[in-house]
Amino acid sequence: MAAKKETFMQGVVTVMFSQVLIKILGLIYTLYLTNRQGFGDAGNAIYASGYQIYALLLTISSIGVPNAISKLVSERLALGDNRGANKIFKVALATFGCIGAVGTMLLFFGAHTIAYNWIQIPEAELTLVALSPAIFFVSISSVFRGYFNGRRSLKTTARAQTLEQIFKTILTIVIVEIVAIVTSTSTEMMAAGANIATTLATFSSFIYLFIYYRIRRKEIGNEIENSTNYKYENVKTIIKKILMVSIPLTLSSIMTSFNKNIDSFTVKRILSTYLSADVATKLYGQLAGKIDTLTNLPLAINIAFATALVPAIAAAKATNDKETATKRTSFSLLTSMLIGLPCVVGMIIFAQPILNLLYPNASQGALLLQLIAASVIFSILNQTINGALQGFGKVIVPAVALGIGCLVKLVLNLILLPIPELNVYGAAIGSIGCHLIAFIIVFNVLKKYVKLDLPFNKFVLKPILATGIMGICSYTIYTLLNGINFGNKATIISIILAVIIYLASVVALKIYNKEDIYMLPKGEKIYKILEKLKIY
Predict the structure, then answer these.
(1) 70 belongs to a structural domain
(2) 443 by DSSP, 3-state: which?
(3) Distance between CA atoms of 176 and 168, rounded to whole angstroms?
(4) What local confidence, expressed as pLDDT, does residue 2 receive?
(5) What averages of pLDDT result for each successive group of 10 residues across the chain (536 residues)?
(6) Are 288 and 434 in contact (CB under 8 A)?
(7) Structure pTM?
(8) 3 domain residue, yes or no
(9) Same domain, 460 and 405
(10) Within this chain, do residues 418 and 496 fall inside the same structural domain, yes or no?
């Protein structure tokens, strides 16, 4: 039985739910690690510093691959060239399998040098060794994910990523507990154990994708036999095409990873010049452990649009359908704004209550969270714009924009971190500068290629008004509940009510028009209900 192709919004919703679940699971094991006796902020520093280096090598070997393969495959399929699409997949599989193997060896044999000389956290050596095999598995899995995304089967990749995170969460807790018992709660060994769980989880994702491909192989074979408009290309040409798309995408991902590694290389090193090594390590642990985890949650929800836009716009561009490309880009940007603004305001208003709720044994870092929250709206919009630009073939622009942003962050870190009154907050200010500059660049480039249907009133004023209503109401509710000693329950109730108030405000202000609502899953039914309620 043939796999049913997903619509644009079905794909978005599938990825969105998957990413939310993934981040919730990620939050669970992060909460466990941070609150685990013997781990805490110091363990987060070891775990995160090793993980960021792994992420950088992983980026070089594979991160640009899913969107690159997705773009090339969707273009071939849009023209009826199923045979060409499958050939791209097979060539990519061999190419990135080799690149992933090289990445694994580099991390395994270079772990000592990286830990002792680069990041100057010797305890991170074991975490790097533990993570090294994961680079190979993720490289191969990335090709499968890109192929299925290009076939408009985002559900498959979403399931694979969700399965990986489930395994990662369970294995992290189990392995760290075993290591803690065996080593009498050695922080270094527990951090290494947590990253062994990551490697095993990536293997589970690869196995799922491989089995699914084997199941669908007959269906894919039939499509190849019925292929039209087949355009023969030799292996060398295909590799060149893949690399021409994936390298700029990878450069963009490298810049994202480099952005995180700027903190790895500068925060502890500079803070240690006027603070004790323990205090400097813990401050970096707050930044890289708790704060990054929380500020990445909104990005997880929004990444669905960036993921779905690449094949959708690439296919529309291949068939010269400018109207579809414009509508989907405008709708995605508006929705990203509506996702981002309340998250920013919520994290600023409820910073300390959130940390008290989630990290009762290590609740420091409220001001740090409030500062970095300001960068989230730019990160979210960048994510969506980058997906659109990649679909249009402007794959180098996001990399250049983020590269300039990273340069701004590096300069700000070097200037602000040495100021004792600012200390780690200098890194937060650097992050705001980085994402703001990148947003200004990519947004202006996008406007040259798409005539966006986003009036200022609809895109900025009304979302700000809806967010303001939410913020005032939810903070008032929290203050009242906190005044009668509701404790952490006050935070949970206030956040739940904030979501309800915000959604009601978005509907009441009619931020989405009829056409926007129709793009939503069950959009026609939703609009009819709103009509009956005399809202539209």
Answers:
(1) yes
(2) helix
(3) 12
(4) 46
(5) 58 76 81 80 75 70 72 83 87 88 89 81 83 90 88 84 90 90 85 88 93 88 78 83 76 75 86 88 81 83 74 75 82 91 95 90 87 93 88 84 93 95 92 94 89 88 96 95 86 95 94 85 82 82
(6) no
(7) 0.73
(8) no
(9) no
(10) no
Residues 144 and 292 in one domain: yes
Measured CA to CA in angstroms, residue 510 lies from 94, 406, 498, 536 at distances of 50, 37, 18, 8
Alpha-carbon distance 145 to 68, whole Å?
11
The answer to whether the CB of 491 falls within 8 A of the CB of 354 is yes
Q: Can you tell me which residue has the tokens 């009956």?
A: 532
Q: How many domains does the chain have?
A: 2
Name the residue with tokens 């402007």. Answer: 394
- Residues 193, 428: Cα–Cα separation, whole Å: 29
Residue 145, φ and ψ in degrees, nearest 5? -60, -45
Task: Say how many residues make up the chain.
Answer: 536
Instruction: Compute how many other C-beta atoms are within 10 angstroms of the C-beta atom of residue 404.
Output: 16
Handedness of CA 297, 298, 304, 309 (dihedral sign): negative
State the number of CA atoms in the 13 A half-sphere of 77 facing the CB: 24
- Could you tell me the CA-to-CA distances from 47 to 59, 125, 275, 417 in Å, in that order? 18, 10, 21, 22
